[in-house]
Write a structure and sequence with these properties.
The structure is a homodimer. Chain A is mainly alpha-helical. Chain A has a single domain, classed as Farnesyl Diphosphate Synthase (Orthogonal Bundle), CATH 1.10.600. Chain A has 15 helices and 2 strands. Chain A has a two-stranded antiparallel sheet with strand order 1-2. The longest helix of chain A is centred in the last third of the chain and has 28 residues. The first copy, chain A, is globular. Chains A and B meet through helix 2, helix 6, helix 7 and helix 8 of A and helix 2, helix 6, helix 7 and helix 8 of B.
Chain lengths: ~290, ~290
Amino acid sequence: MDDLKVFVKDVNDAINGTLERLLPAETAYPGSIHSLMRYSSFAGGKRVRACLVMAAYEACGGNFGDDNALKAASAIEMLHTFSLIHDDLPCMDDDDFRRGKPTAHKAFNEALAVLGGDALCILAFEVLADIGRIDIIKEIAVALGTGGMIGGQVVDIESEGKEVDKATVEYIHNNKTAALIRASVRVGAMLANVSKDTLDRLTSYGNNVGLAFQVVDDILDEESTTETLGKTVGRDGEKGKATFPAVVGIDESKRYAQELIEKSWSDIEFLGDKANTLKNLAEFIRVRIS
Amino acid sequence: MDDLKVFVKDVNDAINGTLERLLPAETAYPGSIHSLMRYSSFAGGKRVRACLVMAAYEACGGNFGDDNALKAASAIEMLHTFSLIHDDLPCMDDDDFRRGKPTAHKAFNEALAVLGGDALCILAFEVLADIGRIDIIKEIAVALGTGGMIGGQVVDIESEGKEVDKATVEYIHNNKTAALIRASVRVGAMLANVSKDTLDRLTSYGNNVGLAFQVVDDILDEESTTETLGKTVGRDGEKGKATFPAVVGIDESKRYAQELIEKSWSDIEFLGDKANTLKNLAEFIRVRIS
């Protein structure tokens, strides 16, 4: 996994540099919102989505460091940050901490958190426009909308404290988390102009990895301590969130995560050695619970 | 002004039909957010921005009813609605009524209002992607961002209850309101593929009309009754909002609005008879305070 560590560090360095360039300076008027956008954008996430864009792009023949790929990966990170800021609001999940730091509305205020989230969403589309690929803008908008991420968030919130079945949990995870992860993989492949067949196989990989990611997150929320995870744990159970462990138990959740990761590996077998980074990223998700 | 009434009705009918087609059905899962998006989209606004897109498009040689123009105008209306939903939230302007109806967070709930606003913003970009014009996506993203509408909203909220100068009020109005109105005019012209010179003149028209629109809105907030305006009036003064009447007085505000409308007329003099609808739209804004 040493290769993966190097890759993840390279992506993080490159994305931090690109975001530094794309986000307005804190000194640019009005400064408060730019401070918030930067605070939340540099809050120390692992940048899984950017890693998937870059790994898919490289696996399909793209060169690490190509400006359009870095811009697309940065735009997707902005969109992920936008969703986290709004998710943490008092009227939504009401979280005070994320990654060990106060959430945006705690560090600034609620109005600025709503507007800062909005601004990151809008800036992401501006950055995507600069890439000049209509198909990629469409791809991302569809992944984010009510048939994707936002739809998942709605059902997540509306399911709180209710008895839900496995199908509902799968809907939430497929949309709230997997839609943007799947789109990240697809965007990397699309930027490398792959064939339809290759795109289909990578879509399946993205789907399996995206779902595994959320199942593992649910398991960690039950099993970890607040200290190791950097955010308040056990919150899912407290809030009556619809999670995999809640509907099928911890053991079956772990087995399911394992199965999803194995499926994701066979999805990209056809890429041979070029699949290594994508495989390692999937494995990295799995080892968090092993 | 009879011609204008017919034009405004035609635009409203066409945009309502287009939005009906573009917005997900209330029966589409998850239904609650689609209900909210439709509730706020069909809340009875005058669709000034859509009128400006269509009037500019026609003035520049486009045909009323062209699908791309109707889609662009509808996307801009979605973006305007997104901004109103978030603006009305308790942590922002905390308004319970708009156009005589309960605001989105009152009719539904806060979480759904945040997500419904987000979803309208994202759907607008999906619709714009379907038009296939990168330059128009870029235009609108820039108009909405922290150098435009969102920037104006930030300064508006941060100026509440403070002594502000005329320059600050002009910044707020130029960005919070005029940026999207100017972009509406520009998008209509861009869809008709006008020359740079024509686009520059229409940009100036859009700027003047956009600023006039907000100055008139401020005057109406001070002078009208809640009944005639359909929303709670006098709220600006109550909240210590930065408005033109507050910094230069009512009489000077009226003179300034008049001056802006006259400027907007001379901006489009070069279009001859084809400027009639755009002129009438500017006049329509002015007569609200005459």
